[in-house]
Amino acid sequence: MGVVTNKTNKFQACIDACKKCMQACYECFSECLNEPDLNARKNCLSILVECAMMCQMSVAMMSMDGQFSKQHCKLCASICEKCAQECDMFKDDHCQKCAEICRVCSEECRKMASM
Prior knowledge:
It contains four helices and no strands. By secondary structure, the protein is mostly helical. It is elongated.
């Protein structure tokens, strides 16, 4: 449901998935900083931040029904999928949960981009 209008209702599932993914990536980033193999997680840490920022921007684009929302969400889907792959390389609970949330977001972004 849109907050002040119904104009973006068609994007709501994707908006919700992106919000959750953004939060998951920032939380996972924070947890990864405390892992003993921090040096091995450099790529993962980098993509976590990129993914979170991309999801945040996707929410903004869809919320204003931006003219490039579909293209943006298509790219967001790719970044989320890459983030899931990176997180999958680490077996701790936070990375595994984040990977699953990223995959769901990727799926929702692909659906939205094909509307």
